[in-house]
Amino acid sequence: MFSKFSIKAGILTFGLLIFALLAFSYPSDKTKNSIGDVLHSVTIPMLEIDSDIEISESVDDDLLIDDVPDDMVEVVEEVQEDIIIDKPRALVSVVIYDYGLSQKMSERIFETQVQNLTLSLSPYCETPSYWIDTAYRFESEPWSGLYVSVGDVDRQKDYGPLVIIEGSNRALNAKRLSDSLSRGIGGQGIIGYYDGTKPIKELTDVYKTLKSENISFSMISEVATFPSDDVLQSRYQLGYNESAENVAKFFAKLKKNALRDGTAFGAVPPTPLVLKYLSKWSDELYKNSIQIVPLSTLLDY
Fold first, then answer.
1. What is the dihedral sign for C-alpha 35, 40, 41, 43?
2. Which residues contact 156 (CB under 8 A, 6 or more apart)?
3. What separation in angstroms does the CA of 235 have from each of 193, 214, 223?
4. Distances (CA, A) of 102 to 35, 70, 122, 173
5. Do 285 and 255 form a contact (C-beta atoms < 8 A)?
6. What does pLDDT average to over the chain?
7. Are 79 and 289 in contact (CB under 8 A)?
8. Hey, how many other C-beta atoms are within 10 angstroms of the C-beta on 142?
9. What's the CATH number of domain 92-300, 3.20.20.370, 3.40.50.1820, 1.20.1250.20, 1.10.10.10?
10. Count of H helices and E strands in the chain?
11. Domain limits, the chain
12. Among 75, 71, 99, which Cα is nearest to 188's?
């Protein structure tokens, strides 16, 4: 028979054997980490790509702006607008009269950062060459303004000594026209402002003189003063003391006419209210694919 000591020794030996087997089967955390390091150090070779595979460069025409992340929508819209404006729906010219008459008001025109404006030089501008050069520098187009009025003494008080008056001495009117032309050297042409309700022979004299000198001529008048196709005519002119509501209506009408006829132009003064609205209106035109262009562009259109 076995002694009690032998039985205990056998049990102890069996337990040590089992413990040793368990220790061998489950490696320590340190061993696990070292195995992981080895796996991460293995370089997996890249598959060789067949160079004959054709890669399509076409763009999916069905890609919609809804598929673009929200933070990129504005960027995509701007790109789309850039594409649209290459083929504008309509052209519009904005004539700003009395340009150069007041330095402060004239400088505010350029603060709007609206380009391709038509700047109508005042006959009474003291430094016409400076303002003509400045207009070109800010990517706008200078023209010379010429006032033509019905035979009324009070009208001459309003417009000054260079206004061409109905019924006035013909030689005197010719001199006034000549003075206006000499002050506008370097500009694109003459914009006439007529306040009558019917055509007068003085306008015909102006037209013939400009035609003989090959000078472009446009008119702002309530009535159609010329049947000729080589004279741009518009009856849209905004006054100095207009309300904000009337300013908004004026620009809305100009936009509507441009969309209806393909082109339109009108004259506005360089007041703070008008210039503030002009800046916002130009953004509205851009979104509607209507392009602001100089007056000479409409002549060639």
1. positive
2. 149, 163, 165
3. 10, 24, 7
4. 85, 46, 9, 26
5. yes
6. 77
7. no
8. 24
9. 3.20.20.370
10. 11, 9
11. 92-300
12. 99
Beta strands 263-268 and 90-99, pairing class = parallel
Query: What letter would DSSP give residue 72?
Result: G
The CA-CA-CA angle for residues 260, 135, 113, to 5°, reads: 65
Pairwise pLDDT comparison (185 vs 42), residue with the higher score: 185
Q: Beta strands 164-165 and 216-221: pairing type?
A: unpaired
Which residues are CB-contacts of 299 (< 8 A; sequence separation ≥ 6)? Answer: 216, 218, 230, 232
Q: Which of 265, 259, 253, 258 is nearest to 296 (CA)?
A: 265
Distances (CA, A) of 232 to 27, 121, 131, 147, 188: 95, 18, 24, 16, 13
Average pLDDT over residues 42-53: 33
Global pTM?
Answer: 0.70
Whether 33 has a pLDDT exceeding 60, the answer reads no
Residue 8: beta bridge partners?
none
Q: Which two tokens stand for residue 110?
A: 């350029």
For the ranges 68-82, 106-120, 267-281, the lowest mean pLDDT is seen at 68-82
Of the candidates 73, 180, 71, the residue with the CA atom closest to the CA atom of residue 125? 180
Give residue 214's Cα distance to chain centre: 32
Query: Residue 231 is encoded by which pair of tokens?
Result: 């004279």
The encoded tokens of residue 121 equal: 């030089």
- Say which range, 54-58, 120-124, 220-224, has the weakest mean pLDDT: 54-58
Helix axes 103-111, 128-137, angle to 10 degrees: 10
Is the Cβ–Cβ distance between 108 and 275 less than 8 Å? yes
Comparing CA positions, the residue from 240, 242, 243, 216 lying closest to residue 230 is: 216
Among 187, 105, 182, CA closest to 144: 187
